[in-house]
Amino acid sequence: MKSSLNKQSILLLGMNGLFVLAGALSGTFLNVYLWKTKPDYTMIGWFTVSQQVALGLTFWIAGKWVKEHNKMNALRAGTALSGIFYLLVLWSGPRAVHYIWPLGILLGIALGLFWLAFNVIYFEVTDSHNRDRFNGWVGLLGSFAGIVGPWLSGWIIASMENDTGYRVIFSISLAIYIVGVILSFFLKKRKVKEEYNWSEPWNRLSDVKSPWRPLSLALAAQGIREGVFSFLITLLVFVATKQEWKLGQFSLITSAVSLVSFWVAGRWLRPHYRSAGMLIGALLLVAVLLPLLWKVQYGTLLFMGIGTSLFIPLYLIPITTLGFDLMGATDRNVAERVELVVLRELCLMTGRLIGTFIFIGVLSVSRMPHVITWLMIGLGSAPVIGWFFVRGMMKSAGWKPVSE
């Protein structure tokens, strides 16, 4: 079967690359910027909660717009709102810590609109034969952005006085988002005939025989880890080093490793290896956290970052491909692909919120370094549980779509 990517999928990859690059330039240092004004882990945790709540609700509510109207406009709106978010951060400066909830909600809406439209378009321009390759390229571009963006941002911030460097990188991200909006006009608009079913995510989960039930639990488990690790790792590196350029160096090294590992996994990870790959990847993601029990310093954090970059493709590529292959398993699924994308994101959001609430709850009791380390190991073990839920969906001869 042909597994090459067509022009539309390549164009979508370019759109994704620009969006991720803008996020890598500024997003890596956004929490650090807030932290320097108010060093409070729980504040960053609530900022994450506001984003995730807004993101999940945006997926569900905007699903009607994406399915019944123009999904390209949703993609553009998400990109444009991301630019507006950084414009507001530039305007508010250090006062941004007083607007955690409205800023987080705006960023969540922006991310929700972009990724909802992106995932639906991604499903339409790929198929079960080239999704592993597409996902590999997504990881490859994300890693490249992670190499260039944070390193460049760290260098700019370190070479300028006060907060001038932050204002420069936020401005650069704003410009990239504008370019992304322009690029989106070259994506073809596809005709939509179906109506949006608001209750479909619940209908799938309430059906005891639906394969979406175990997959939803696996996605929630994935989200438990993502919710906290998305902001905690960069903060720990900065707290340990007190230098932005060190954080940029950390991102450069780990993203360079990730670039290679996603390329290899996307090229060689075949369907009959998915289950084993997920389990091995999940276990190794926990193993690389163990040196932090000895001491949380730049060296052990770098070891953890490199290990995570090496092994996370083994977990992410199979579970991502599994979900989107399931969307194409039946005619009903294809017709309700938007609702299923919404379901997928709601499951991830639920997991991220659970993980973040656990983080905030534990830190309200104790903020001792060893407590944070054990909390990371506990939350970082969630992908193992995720594999357990979907292991039966991936046969030794390769996963096949399950009829519903």
Automatic annotation (TrEMBL):
It holds the Pfam family MFS_1. PANTHER family: INTEGRAL MEMBRANE TRANSPORT PROTEIN-RELATED, MAJOR FACILITATOR SUPERFAMILY (MFS) PROFILE DOMAIN-CONTAINING PROTEIN. It is found in: Cell membrane. InterPro entries: MFS, MFS_trans_sf, Sugar_transport-like. It comes from the Bacteria. This is MFS transporter. The chain crosses the membrane at residues 12-35, 41-62, 74-93, 99-122, 134-158, 164-187, 247-269, 276-294, 300-326, 346-365, 371-390. Keywords: Membrane, Transmembrane, Transmembrane helix. It is a multi-pass membrane protein. Its main location: membrane.
